Every structure is written in structure tokens, then in C-alpha cells.
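agent> Task received from the user: take the single chain below, predict its 3D structure, and emit C-alpha cells. No templates, no multimer pairing.
agent> Plan: (1) validate residues, (2) run structure prediction, (3) serialize to C-alpha cells, (4) report one or two observations.
agent> Step 1 OK, no nonstandard residues flagged.
tool_call: predict_structure(input=
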Amino acid sequence: MAESMRRTILIWSAALIAMASSVGQPKRQVNAAPRNPAQSPASQPVPKTASPQTYSIEQVQAGELRFASQCGFCHGRDAAGGETGPDLTRSELVAEDVRGNKIGPLIRKGRPDRGMPAFDLNNADVGTIVAFLHDQKAKFEELGGGRRAVDAADLATGDTTAGRRYFNGAGGCSGCHSVTGDLAGIATRYKGLALLQRMLYPTAGKPDPARPKVTVTLNSGESISGRLASEDEFTIVVLDPAGARKTFEKGAVKFKIDDPMSAHFDQLGKYTDNDMHNVYAYLDTLK
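)
tool_result: status=success, residues=287
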């Protein structure tokens, strides 16, 4: 199996384990009482629709397209939460809405204090969004269960002091990172699950990290260095200093990859569950 594929499997396995082990754990902070996991917003029952409503499939489909283009970035294309917006299928306002009497005014006025702009949409477009939201809410209610997302509070289970000690000591994190340099304000740029994912798998998310460097040595002895463009089980593609792509068969050359992310990949095999949550807790203080 290719090295890149092996890394991917290790990374996502560790990330899934981390997320699964995080959800539902009581919150532990220095000098703070443990939090009852039932208090987590993600563990609360979905608010029931006050007035069940049905809409035509045409309205729902039109609303899906309109919602994705206008609202999907913040609330997710399925309305179950996105980059910055909450899960609307769990919204009390949506649950209490009757054919747009609450959703419509909110769309048109927005919530500037929460970063939601006002939208100048006609009645037909608002109506399709209303139809889509109620349809999505009904679908998620049928799924059962009270948890579909990881709330930021669910992840706050670590000890910040222990996390700082591990960051500067056994974890070796401070050898590459600085809390006053590249990590300054990281908890403002990434929140909750996004921060955990960035910590475990820094190649996911924005900004993209620098590409690994690679040096390819041909049978003639000539060396070609550049950024790694891609790699699979059989070939390696290099971007030379001029930006040209050069493809080599792995079996016909020697190559060395210098990947600054390799320390993160190696760390995944060293973290204990407590270490992982403690470092997350520490990073979450860097605002």
C-alpha cells in the first residue's frame, strides 16, 4: 500500500476515534465542577415541530438549491450546521414556524449581531427555503436519536495545564510551533471540531500548509528538487522551481520526501486519549 494511503488511513482512524471518544464526556476544567453530558446542546432532543407541514416536491427541490446558494456556506447544504452557522434542523425558531411566519422575517432582517446578513428575496424564494427547512427537519426527526453533531463543549474535556506541559515537553510540539507565532490566535480561527481536526490533521482546512519537498535522484546521478505535487503507489510528481510538473516512476528513481507534517502523522501513534484532549484544551486557550 502506498505511504500516502497508509497515512490517510491512520489519520482518519485517529480522528474518528478522537471524535467518538470526545462526544458525551463530562467537561473538566481546572477548579470547575464536572459538566453533566446531558447538558451538551448536541445531546438534547430535537425540538418537535409545533405545526407539522407538508410541501410539494417541486418547492422542496427549489428550496434546496436556493438554500445551498444563499445559506449553505454557514448552515451546511443540508441545514444541519456548517462553517459558522448552527444546525437549523434543531432550531426552536424553525420548530415554531408556521409556513414562514418566523423564518421569513428572519431571512429578510438577518441577525447582524451573529454575523447573519439580511437577504432581499421575493416571497416565492423565501417560500421554497421554508419548504426545504421543514422538509429537512422532518427527515432528521424520523432518524431518531438526539445527537448528530459534535458541539464545542463536548470536546472541552481536557486539562489545560497538562496540555501545556505535554506541548512543551513529551509531545515536542514547541519544537516546530510557537504560541506567540504561528499558533497565536488559533482558537479564534478554528473552533470546536475544526480545531481538533486542524491539530490532528493539519493538511485539512485553510490555509493549506506548505507542500512537502522532494528530491529525486535519477540513475544518471542527476538530482531534481521541488515541491511534491502528488504521489501514488507507482509514481511521484514534482513541481520544479519553474512550476513545471515532472512525473517519475518510483521504481526507476531514488527519492527523498521532506514533509513538515510528518511529525503530526507520527504523533497520532503516540497520543493517549488524555494527551489528545489535554493538548486540545491548551490550544483552545490561544485566542
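agent> Step 4: summary for the user.
The first helix runs from residue 3 to 22.
agent> Done.
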